[in-house]
C-alpha cells in the first residue's frame, strides 16, 4: 500500500466519520446531552490507555516520540478531568446506561490495540486525532443546553490538527518497518472507529 493510498484511505475514513454526525439543530436537549454523555463514557478514561498501548507497540522512533509527547500532554493538562468537567457543565455526566451503551464498541478497540500492532495503533491515533470536526460539534451541543465550559473542545480544536499530522507522518514511518497486511490493518482500524462513532453519535434524527 503506497503512502499516497494510505493517506487517501485515512482522509476518506475521516469524511465518512464526519457524515455520521446529525445536525445539532435537529437534536433535542435530551439528545444533545446523551451524545455528550456517551462520548465521555467512551473516551474519558480510555484515550490515555490507547495512547499507552501505542507507545508500547510503536517500532519507529518517530512513532514513540510522537505518542509519548501526546501522552505527556494528556496527563499534564489532565484532559480526562477536562472532559468530565465539560460533560458536567452540560448536565451530561454519563450514567450506567451510557457506559453500557458504549461498552461493546470500546471493548472492540481495546481488543484491537491489545494486538500491539504499531501500524494499527498509530493508525488509530491518527484517525482519532484527525476528527477535529467533533469539537465544534460537541461545543454546539453543549452550548445548546446552556453550558459555557468549553475548555475541552477549545484545547483539542487548537492542538489536534498538529497531533493528527504528526501521527500520520509516524504511520508512514511505521509502515517502513512493518509493511505486512497494511491495508487490512488500516481497514480494521477504520471499522472499529466507525463503529465507535456510530455508537456514540447515533440519534433518532439519523
Topology:
Layout: H1 3-18, H2 29-43, H3 47-57, H4 61-76, H5 79-89, H6 96-114, H7 118-129, H8 134-144, H9 151-177, H10 182-201
Describe the model.
- The protein has helices at 3-18, 29-43, 47-57, 61-76, 79-89, 96-114, 118-129, 134-144, 151-177, 182-201.
- With 206 residues, it is mostly helical.
- Helix 1 packs parallel to helix 10, helix 4 (61-76) runs antiparallel to helix 9 (151-177) and helix 7 runs antiparallel to helix 9 (151-177).
- The longest helix is centred in the C-terminal third of the chain and has 27 residues, at 151-177.
- The protein starts with a helix and ends in a 5-residue tail after the last helix.
- The mean pLDDT is 94.
